[in-house]
Amino acid sequence: MTALDKKDLHVHTPFCPHRHTDAPLEAYLAAAERAGMAEVAFTEHAPLPIPLERTQYEENPNLSADGVDAYFAGMQAFREHYTGPVRMRIGLEVEYFEGCEEKTGHILEAYGPRMEDGLISVHNLLVDGCYLNLDYRHNIIAAVKAVGARKLGEIYYRTLIRSVTADLGPWRPRRVGHPTLLGRCGRLFPEFYDNLPVMEEFILVVKEQECALELNTSGVLYPDDCGQIYGEALLPLIQKHRVPVSLGSDAHEPERIGGGFDLPVIQENLKTLLPVWEA
Ligand SMILES: [Zn+2]
Ligand SMILES: [Zn+2]
């Protein structure tokens, strides 16, 4: 069985509108090989289920419908000629916007048959009829000002619960991306980790829905504001309830693939975590 730290199951690609580099796909596979990865899941951002104007994004960070077709075609064509040792899965990171379940179901209907893997990720929270975006620290800080840190944490975990219980159809992704994304500012607002009952409720729902959680190492890229991997705050509950996990770097550039997989928090827990492919 492949060890957890040999599969990076959350990697972006040259097709990502907000990629950090214009490096070609070859460079991603070469970097994965150098990092000792046996497998990489490419999970490009699926189209937003709502108009851009209803979000806090200034530019669309996600693929357009045409972009998705180009992505699948380009990735599949690359793989046909790839002879290296890294196994490639081609999938999508699908957005969960509360209230947009039907549209999200249609997106999954359209792309599900081509998806070999998928993440369901919450980057936006519905608060008082508006979608608050969690990708940027200033947005999180503004959201805390609006509703308070403890309440925002509660809303976040309630939204995660909905993301795994929503009826998104047969193609719904079963891995939850970066399940403490709010911790992007967790050092500023420790109250985000303060609500154990709702966090445990979320863990139990994940288990019951036969889903899995991602431990996402990109949180450590923000040492002052976050300083831990996404999912770390849930580790005691993940262990207690034997919830399956995968590791993801969320790399938007080749050099980041497998990044952080050597961190003590991962290495010290490797033997007691249940990899999603063994669940
Ligand atoms: Zn991205
Ligand atoms: Zn994400």
From TrEMBL:
Whether Amino-acid biosynthesis counts among this entry's keywords is yes
Q: Which SUPFAM superfamilies match?
A: PHP domain-like
- Which InterPro entries does the entry mention? Histidinol_P_phosphatase_HisJ (IPR010140), PHP_dom (IPR004013), Pol/histidinol_Pase-like (IPR016195)
Please give the Gene Ontology molecular function terms for this protein: histidinol-phosphatase activity
Gene3D superfamilies in the cross-refs:
Metal-dependent hydrolases (3.20.20.140)
Listed EC numbers: 3.1.3.15
Q: In which pathway does it act?
A: Amino-acid biosynthesis; L-histidine biosynthesis; L-histidine from 5-phospho-alpha-D-ribose 1-diphosphate: step 8/9
Q: Name one GO cellular component term.
A: cytoplasm
Q: Where is the PHP domain?
A: 8-218
The domain of life for this entry's organism is Bacteria
Keyword Hydrolase among UniProt keywords: yes
Catalysed transformations (reactions): L-histidinol phosphate + H2O = L-histidinol + phosphate
UniProt keyword list: Amino-acid biosynthesis, Histidine biosynthesis, Hydrolase
Family designation? Belongs to the PHP hydrolase family. HisK subfamily.
Name of this protein: Histidinol-phosphatase
* Species, as recorded: Pusillibacter faecalis
The gene name reads: hisK_2
